[in-house]
Amino acid sequence: MTFTTRFAPSPTGPLHLGHAYSALLAHDMAHAAGGIFHLRIEDLDQSRARPHWEAQIADDLHWLGLTWPEPAMRQSDRGAAYAQALAQFEARGLLYPCRCNRADIDAAAGAPQEGVPQFGPDGRIYPGTCRNRPMADRQPEDVIRLNIARATEALPALTFTETGAAFAGTHALNADDLQTTIGDVILERRQMAGSYHLAVTVDDAAQAITHVIRGEDLFDATRIHVLLQHLLGLPTPTYHHHRLIRDDAGKRLAKRDDARAIARYREDGLSPADIRKLVGL
Ligand code: GLU
User: Fold this and answer.
1) At residue 257, does pLDDT exceed 90?
2) CA of residue 137 to ligand 1 center, whole Å
């Protein structure tokens, strides 16, 4: 199988050093293996995605010396594929509509209990308030959640391989653990064709991604993706979660940290080789 990877930015801000590191590393690893590097535009959240950020990201990546098969996949074009995956889950009774907002969830969560995790990869673990609502009851303002207890019934032995230094090894999924540390994740958000977890799972398979190379902050979400792959009968790629580029205070870079934007470094006269040095490549 050809080593195939991707860089999947959301066009909601400038490309910064952390993104550049992720894209360069993925591109270098694909290149070293004689493989393919894809760009995928994760613009599911159309309220935040902007065409000028997408153009700037592509321009910065080209400046860094990266190329990819054109046109890049764009998640806003992929609604039909996400709907098809959701229909498969719905047919198996794994979905329910949920109307809870954050305050409802906080209120329903109750007092913390010793040894019971309260937060998962998506924030507070959903307490299950709407779990018994049927899909037929769905309202336009609802999100759609996965009933994780049902989705993990009779779960076979599932594992994934991680090659990033921090978590290297084989990781096994466990139904109890998925229920208590992840819970009923959202698969379709309001005004969006899917959620990040659904879209990334469907798109990685559609692009025949063999190696997912991304930041360590997404390691905990990987079990969700592996579970969804299993439920949809899709292959599980190898994962490589890399270190995060932090600012001088040790804080993870965010989109709003314009000072670290690649465009700024370009204006200041730095070269792509300087950027590689800055991120330790
Ligand atoms: N779109 C995600 C981000 O910008 C990356 C998702 C992924 O690589 O799986 O953080």
Assistant:
1) no
2) 32
